[in-house]
Specification:
Radius of gyration: 22 Å
Strand order of the largest sheet: 3-2-1-4-5-6-7
Shape: globular
CATH architecture of the largest domain: 3-Layer(aba) Sandwich
Strand content: 15-25%
CATH class of the largest domain: Alpha Beta
Order of helices and strands: EHEEHHHHEHEHEHEHHEHEHEHEHEEHH
Number of helices: 16
Structural class: alpha/beta
CATH topology of the largest domain: Rossmann fold
Number of domains: 2
């Protein structure tokens, strides 16, 4: 019996969170025993933890890492508060020197300063394998005892701001670095060439039958109240956090161009996040209030995928989007922008189509696909099941 440890921040709705739960659900518990550590016991997916998994108790210090600063002070976590202040000062100096394109590098500063004041995780136990499923990976590296440690890559490292001097020693502390697709691994290796030989590809596992069964949980007539079918109008759906990477802020303008070209659509978006005000502003600016509809956060998005005509991933960059694979599993045609790692997610002409990233090219590609009868297009069957089997075999090689 192998003893495994997995760590992730929490179980809010998200691709990485869903992927971890799918992996845990696929393991053979006659061969492994699993402890799961969450920084904070919160999120809609908490109820989806497989029964054989042992959820470790929440450690208060870890639960403070992402809380508002005022709340940390109010609850008396002074060491965490001081570390957060140090993070702000150090990152500000970095920002002034480099003018980064995004704030991704701040997480390395958070981890470097907060890790020293965190207690060990389950210190009385040594695991056969410890898995850090989301960065920062400092916590599992320094606070968990294990014979072997693995860190996961979920995003395109060539598209985010990275302080390599801070991050490389952390990644180098792991025995294996798991990439969810060949392109994600290749781009990571370009940023950290010295770590190329440690990369192992393990695609995200998707519980196909579970997704299909959950798609039946809400009656179609209930979904139709939020996503009504209108004759002559194509219902598009996108799912994800309201973030820069997902590119949802350009949807209203793309939608406006589709309507101007005589292709009426209603574009529904499921998700949440800090960019919601910007997206609503863009909807108003484009005059697309009746055509672009924000549905908010949905604990079960699968009936909505089943009800849409086409699933659209308009991202600026991605790792390997779970929602694309969920749409494929539910037999929906996929439209994806040509983000750098898209080829690992969508096979053009097989699972759907890949369209240009720019707004005009994207609109033209979607319009052409709709006019060519894209709603009747069906992805090739069996792909996800084959990938799942291969991924599980790869995971077991880590043990």
């Amino acid at each position: 019996m192998k003893h495994l440890f997995f760590s992730i921040h929490y179980l809010e709705l998200g691709g990485a969170e869903a992927s971890l739960l799918a992996l845990l659900g696929a393991l053979d518990y006659t061969k492994v025993q699993v402890d799961l550590f969450l920084h904070s016991h919160r999120g809609e997916l908490m109820t989806m933890i497989p029964p054989p998994v042992n959820l470790l108790p929440e450690i208060p210090a870890y639960a403070q890492i992402e809380r508002p600063f005022a709340e940390i002070l109010k609850d008396g976590h002074l060491r965490i508060a001081l570390a957060r202040l140090l993070v702000k000062w150090q990152y500000y100096r970095y920002w002034k020197q480099t003018k980064p394109r995004d704030e991704s590098a701040i997480f390395a500063y958070v981890a470097r300063n907060i890790t020293p004041v965190l207690p060990p995780i389950n210190p009385d136990k040594e695991y056969d394998l410890a898995v850090s499923f989301l960065p920062p990976h400092d916590y599992v590296l320094q606070k968990v005892r294990a014979r072997k440690k693995v860190a996961w890559i979920h995003t395109d490292y060539s598209r985010i701001d990275v302080n390599a001097a801070l991050e490389e020693p952390v990644w180098a502390g792991y025995d294996t670095i798991v990439s969810i697709s060949p392109s994600v691994g290749d781009r990571f290796a370009k940023v950290f060439p010295s770590l190329k030989d440690r990369i192992l590809e393990i695609p995200n596992i998707l519980p196909v039958e579970w997704v299909r069964s959950r798609a039946e949980e809400i009656p179609p007539q209930v979904i139709a109240r939020e996503m009504p079918a209108v004759a002559g109008t194509t219902n598009l759906l996108s799912i994800g956090r309201y973030s820069y990477a997902k590119n949802f802020d350009v949807i209203p303008e793309i939608c406006r161009r589709l309507h101007r070209s005589g292709v009426p659509v209603r574009w529904y978006i499921i998700g949440y996040g800090d960019l919601e005000p910007l997206i609503r502003q863009r909807i108003a600016e484009a005059g697309m209030e009746e055509a672009v509809i924000l549905l908010g956060k949905k604990a079960n998005p699968y009936p909505y995928i089943k009800a849409c005509d086409m699933y659209v991933q308009p991202s600026r960059y991605e790792g390997s989007p779970v929602t694309i694979r969920e749409a494929i599993a539910l037999g929906k045609p996929v439209i994806a922008t040509a983000f750098p790692t898209v080829q690992s997610a969508v096979r053009d002409g097989v699972d759907g189509i890949i369209v240009p990233m720019d707004q005009d090219g994207c609109a033209r590609g979607i319009a052409r696909f709709i006019r060519d009868g894209g709603a009747a297009f069906r992805p090739a069957p069996g792909r996800i099941e084959q990938e799942n089997s291969a991924a599980l075999r790869q995971f077991y090689t880590l043990l």
